[in-house]
Amino acid sequence: MSKGFTCKQFHINTEQCGMPVSTDGILLGAWANILQSDSILDIGCGAGLLSIMCAQRNAYASIIGLDIEQNAIKAAIENVNQTPWNERITIKHQSLRSFVEGHLNTQPSINSEISSIICNPPYFNSGEHSFNIQRALARHTSSLSHYNLLNDCHQVLKLGGTASFILPAKEGLAMIDLLGEVNEKFETFLSLSRLTMVHTKQNKPVTRLLIELTKHKSNLLINVTKNSLIIHEGGNYSTDFVELTKAFYLKM
To answer: Are the CB atoms for 114 and 41 separated by under 8 Å?
Structure first.
């Protein structure tokens, strides 16, 4: 078996990719509300994990995975082609900005806009970049700032559509704070609709935020669902974590 990560229904070969499969990715792919979506955009798809997880969970959606790193694209295409859902997943070597510009120019109908966006975004805003260029692109916001990410998501997401992210707590709150600035440019809004605070253990601080944003008319009030998820309890995985991820992890 090639270097990488094996789930119950697929294998992710990460040998050529900037980042290995992480708990963050599994959490986001299992948590995102994509079951009723007919079109899903995976931004920064890496080796294809989230695109493939979405295809496993949603039997009908068309899925597009974008990445700017050539080795990630090669790995994603190979990984997708080994799954039973390869006909519904398209991997593109393309930046988000280029995709948005092309989408707006060629898809004027509201029915052709994206139902759901999923993204495990870069989050290091400062500090030294990795000597590994693939790892640096995956980890640092210099390749995609959170403001530009939200702005582009707003432009391709259909009304009522959702965008789902996972970030460390500090960076996640900062992204949420950016929404007011982003929304000033549009007649419709992106607003927080769901927030899960992830703890490694009971009584430990929040380490990650699972964030869902919904695009809506500016005069519509969005109710926010908030909860917590604890990964480990009593030396084992928690019941909630197992329930969320059991369709993917081999030993659950």
So the answer is: yes
